[in-house]
TrEMBL record:
InterPro entries in the cross-refs: CobQ/CobB/MinD/ParA_Nub-bd_dom (IPR002586), FlhG (IPR033875), MinD_FleN (IPR025501), P-loop_NTPase (IPR027417), ParA/MinD_ATPase (IPR050625)
A Pfam family annotated for this UniProt entry: CbiA
Species whose genome carries this gene: Ideonella lacteola
CobQ/CobB/MinD/ParA nucleotide binding domain span: 21-241
Name under which the protein is recorded: MinD/ParA family protein
Source superkingdom: Bacteria
């Protein structure tokens, strides 16, 4: 695994990472776990990937990856350490920028937090091909602002009714407040092949009926894929391992790889 942070490009280089915000209306749908495994799948396709843990108050990306960070975004924000020191290699061939957990001062979108986030994103953008923003769940001002920094948005949901209701609420808010017209959908924990695409169709119908009217353009949900309910996922979580490394051939891992392939396509 490459342990060095990718070097900054030369002044003549115009490379800027494509930024994807991975978000969800509801917690507990597997958003962070999927963010980490999507990063690993993208890295296998040759991309330089950074996952930025943007759940500033309740960060747990370090737990998923079994990392014990000595330096976090909090240290960068306070000037205790440099940004370069905070970016660390993760299992799977990508890099992470971890946030500290339980930081109450980052639970509200103050002008200071807004400026700090923008500064960090702009500084890391030239060093990578793709940045995944693992946001918090819900539609708080911090989450929505973080999403606004991304080029595109991936919404993670499960077939559970409450998760679908909250996914719809997130889609509605992003469409009306950020003028998002193209959103991607990844359905986790499906029990039957094809259920994810059916759910996308159902959500699209509701969006067409209740969100699109009155907008200057329709809101479109792109189906990025589905990830099967798989007992090996729980085992990987318990082990604090990437699914793609612990059980690369399992159905859930295959779903993640397929979704990553569509992301770059």
């Amino acid at each position: 695994m490459n342990t060095a942070v990718p070097p900054a490009p030369s002044p003549s280089s115009s490379r800027r990472a494509h930024i994807t915000a991975i978000t969800s209306g509801k917690g507990g749908v597997g958003k962070t776990f999927l963010s980490a495994n999507l990063a690993a799948a993208l890295a296998r396709q040759g991309e330089r990937v950074l996952v930025l843990d943007a759940d500033l108050g309740l960060a747990n990306l370090d737990v998923v990856l079994n990392l014990f960070p000595k330096i976090t975004l909090h240290d960068v924000f306070t000037g205790k350490n440099t940004l370069e020191q905070a970016i660390v290699p993760a299992p799977g061939g990508f890099h992470v920028l971890l946030a500290g957990s339980g930081m109450v001062e980052y639970s509200r979108l103050t002008p200071e937090v807004r400026d700090l986030l923008v500064d960090v994103v702009e500084k890391v953008r030239p060093q990578f091909d793709r940045i995944l923003l693992d946001t918090g769940a819900g539609i708080s001002d911090v989450v929505l602002y973080t999403v606004s920094l991304a080029d595109d948005v991936l919404i993670v949901t499960t077939p559970e009714p409450t998760a679908l209701t909250d996914a719809y609420a997130t889609i509605k808010v992003l469409a009306t407040t950020q003028r998002r017209r193209d959103l991607r959908l990844l359905v986790n924990q499906v029990t039957r092949p094809g259920d994810g695409r059916t759910i996308r169709g159902q959500l699209q119908q509701v969006v067409d009926r209740y969100v699109t009217p009155g907008l200057e353009a329709p809101v479109k949900l792109e189906f990025l894929g589905e990830v099967a309910t798989d007992k090996t996922v729980r085992e990987a979580v318990t082990r604090r391992q990437l699914l793609l490394e612990a059980f690369p051939g399992c159905p859930a891992a295959q779903g993640v790889v397929a979704a990553a392939t569509r992301m770059v396509a």
